Each structure stands twice: as structure tokens, then as C-alpha cells.
Amino acid sequence: MSFGRMERSPGSTPMGDINMTPLIDVMLVLLVIFIITAPLMVSAVKVDLPKASAPAVTEAAAPTLAVAIDKDGTVYVRDQALAGELLEQALRAAAQNPDTEVQLRADRAVPYGHVVEFMALANRAGLSRVGFVAQAPK
Known about the structure:
Elements: H1 20-41, E1 64-69, E2 75-77, E3 80-82, H2 84-94, E4 101-106, H3 112-125, E5 129-132
């Protein structure tokens, strides 16, 4: 051993920068959550639903087919505009399961005749369960 002066390395100094990795990880997770949930929160078809007050129906989860009719009378099946033979094919494909329920959202300005025509078309395709979607009054 020597009795001279020994050189010491300086101790650890406090870090002056923020660790960005956890912040970036949290932001990316939030971005993914918003990307996934954003399409679910907005319906692509703008329909002015009639207002009605009724208790919510609670049933066992049956397969559903979302159908909307806008004010011009265009029929949308799962947010895709269909007409004629394509509409009939989509309804027949949904009717493969006899428990399938059509959830019909018709704009308030749609003539009742268009709604009845669609219901007759759905019935011919084999879909007998039709539920009307309405907006709760404020």
C-alpha cells in the first residue's frame, strides 16, 4: 500500500434531462386507443332519428344487422350504400342465421313507403325480426 494521494473518480451527478422513453410509450398507447375507438364513436351515415321514450330492451345477444335509411332514401347496410341486387344479396346472407335482427335507423324525413318497401324486402330475404332505433327525447 502506498500512502500517497489516491485519485478518486467523481461521484454520480444528477441527471438534468427528462427520460423521454416512458412519456413516448404512454403517448403511443393513447394514440392506439384513440385510433381504435374513434370509428366506433361516430356513425358514418347521418340520420336524424325520430324521438321516442320507451324503456331499453334487454335481451340475449342475438346477431344484428345494422341498416340505415337516410333522408334521400338510400339504404346503408353496415355503413355501405347498397341498392337492388346487392341489397338483396346482403339481406339473404344475413338471413342465414334465423335469429338475426335488423336494427333499422330511418331518418325522420324518409317517407313511410320507403321503410315499408325495405321491410318487405327484408321479409322476402328471410329476416322477420326488425327493431326500430330511435333517439331518446331530451
